[in-house]
Amino acid sequence: MILLCNDDGFNAEGLRVLRKELLSLDDVMIVAPETEQSAMGHAITLTQPLKIRKVKEDGEFIGYAVNGTPADCVKLAITVLLDEPPKLVVSGINLGGNLGICALYSGTVSAATEAMIMGVPSIAVSLDTYENPDFKTAAKFTRKFIPQLLEKGLPDGVVLNINVPPVSESEFAGVAITRQGKSRVIEEFDCRKDPHGRTYYWLAGEMLFEETEEGADCVMIAKKYISVAPIHFDLTHYASLDKLKAVSYTHLRAHETEADLVCRLLLE
């Protein structure tokens, strides 16, 4: 069985198009948020109960809608709702790209990451547009990609973050193995007044493409490549770790504490 999740919500078009495409491969179960949970990152629910709603369409049971985050959905599905772990978790198809730093905020990517943490191979799939999205091409690519993925497997601790440009299949430049870029959203806050005169702010902004180096996900998407980025969430900076492991406190300078020494070595 393939488990589907997302952060756009149970009724999102990208999720439904993907389900329809993947049914030709295997049984498919949806466990997804009841409502949109975009940019929730890897949040999990601790302070309120998780409620599930069984969903049937045309008399067929297709999955569960959950009043939680994408990570909640994956935890609940694998631990409680499914009789056995799925062979694969596919999160998406997200409306809008999850590129660069945005991958850290993405509930779609975090659902895939949660599956990896729980020992289930997983991928996140996003369509890099918000205007007139056509998810069919991205769904078709995902369906073709999955058998190869299941045959070859993924390295431990690795998730594939797949971003698809919003072009027809004939316009793809190819498939590029990429790295997560550094491009990010430059935030703007729209200041408004509610009917009672109270000030509130609405977060807006647009993506700042800071990179031109070949191989970054944002760069390759702009060139009409499907971006496949192997990512992981070990946040350790190993170069700094190795540097600190070599520290001898005999290197302390006059009037310098051990904390001072560590900070000095990190910043040199």
Structural class: alpha/beta
The spatial strand order of the largest sheet comes to: 3-4-2-1-5-6-7-11-8
Overall body shape: globular
Q: Could you state the order of secondary-structure elements as H and E? A: EHEEEHEHHEHEEEEHEHH
Round the Cα radius of gyration to an integer and report it.
Answer: 21 Å
User: Which strand-content bin applies to the residues?
Assistant: 25-35%
Number of strands: 11
Low-pLDDT ranges: none
Mean pLDDT: 90
Report helical residue fraction: 25-40%
Distance between the termini: 51 Å
Describe the structure.
The protein is of the alpha/beta class and 268 residues long. The chain is 29% helix and 28% strand. The strands form 2 sheets. A 9-stranded mixed sheet has the order 3-4-2-1-5-6-7-11-8. Helix 1 links the parallel strand 1 (2-5) and strand 2 (28-33). Helix 1 packs across helix 5 and helix 2 runs parallel beside helix 4 (107-117). The radius of gyration is 21 Å and the shape is globular. The chain starts with a strand and ends with a helix.
Summarize the structure.
This protein has eight helices and eleven strands. It has 268 residues and is an alpha/beta fold.
Q: How do the strands and helices of this protein lay out in sequence?
A:
Layout: E1 2-5, H1 13-22, E2 28-33, E3 52-57, E4 60-66, H2 70-81, E5 88-95, H3 102-105, H4 107-117, E6 122-127, H5 136-152, E7 159-164, E8 174-177, E9 184-193, E10 199-208, H6 217-222, E11 225-231, H7 238-245, H8 258-267
Parallel strand pairs: 1-2, 1-5, 2-4, 5-6, 6-7, 8-11
Antiparallel strand pairs: 3-4, 7-11, 9-10
Helix pairs in contact: 1-5, 2-4
